[in-house]
Specification:
single chain, TIM Barrel, 295 residues, 7-stranded parallel sheet, 3-stranded antiparallel sheet
């Protein structure tokens, strides 16, 4: 949700009863600090800051999180070991994203309050394991709460995650079409229009695969990824700034429209409040009736 999940969306989600998240992405530290202050002006509820550890500004943003005493830090695209003690000493809750049992165990040893186990169905940076396979294995391996992510769009996915052992869920793609989300209208339209087979994973050759919607950009990237004449440096340059082109400029030719496999389930724009109420209402009804399947 880099370039997408800002103060407006984070505050709206928190005000609706969820935990809103500011996505730092590749933004500079002072830009992130400004978003934290904006969020505090819009909500009195807790919210999180997501730090992408691959960012060249990750160290500076880690210090901003400590200085601003954010409620929760969520980390992705790396291991936050060198920052953990700093955050924990300030009473900050740390919840790393993990794609495997091994990393989840390591995060627990480092003092994480919970882990987000993210399956490869999700949008953006992905691992290999699916949510269905990953969640129960992580739940069995750690004693801290597990939050399920990847392939969850509605109450059915939420209920399934709970039955697999998760204590919470994280959604990204569904909130791309939240009323409060300021992503370009072209981005929202593409998600709403998407079908079940409309995503593709690129970047495996570079070691950081990304799931996005099938577009001229992603198809071109995929083709060049397996061309022996194209260097890794050329591939990296091709992808640089592509998310911003999609989310800010709505460039349908050159932009990377990151989204999960559940895009086909997202059919309309709603407020964050409506999304959360619908999600929880569906899950509650399904879980109340779940016992009929084991009688």
């Amino acid at each position: 949700m880099a370039c997408i999940s800002d103060a407006a969306l984070a505050a709206a989600v928190s005000n609706a009863g969820g935990l809103g998240v500011i996505a730092a992405g590749n933004e500079q530290a002072e830009t992130v600090r400004a978003e934290i202050k904006k969020t505090r002006a819009l909500t009195a509820k807790p919210f999180a800051l997501n730090i992408m550890l691959m960012s060249p500004f990750a160290a500076e943003i880690a210090r901003v999180a400590e200085e601003e005493k954010v409620d929760v830090v969520i980390t992705g695209a790396g291991i936050p070991e060198k920052y953990m003690q700093l955050w924990l000493e300030k009473g900050i809750i740390v919840i790393p994203v993990t794609p495997s049992v091994t990393i989840a165990r390591r995060m627990e040893r480092l003092g994480a309050a919970a882990v987000i186990a993210e399956g490869g169905e999700s949008g953006g940076h992905v691992g290999d394991l699916t949510t269905m396979a990953l969640i129960p294995q992580v739940c069995d391996a750690v004693g801290i709460p597990v939050i399920a992510a990847g392939g969850i769009a509605d109450g059915r996915g939420m209920a399934a995650a709970f039955l697999l052992g998760a204590r919470g869920v994280q959604l990204g793609t569904r909130f791309l079409v939240a009323t409060e989300c300021k992503v370009h209208v072209n981005y929202k339209a593409k998600v709403i229009k998407a079908k079940d087979t409309d995503t593709i994973v690129t970047g495996k050759r570079l070691g950081h695969p990304v799931r996005s919607l099938k577009t001229p950009f992603s198809r071109n990237f995929f083709a060049k990824e397996y061309a022996a004449t194209v260097s890794n440096e050329e591939l990296e340059a091709l992808g640089s700034g592509a998310l911003r082109l999609a989310s800010v400029a709505g460039d349908e030719q050159n932009g990377c429209f990151m989204a999960g496999q559940i895009s086909g389930l997202v059919t309309k724009e709603q407020s964050a409040q409506e999304i959360i109420e619908e999600l929880c209402g569906q899950a509650e009804q399904l879980l109340k009736g779940a016992s009929i399947w084991v009688k």
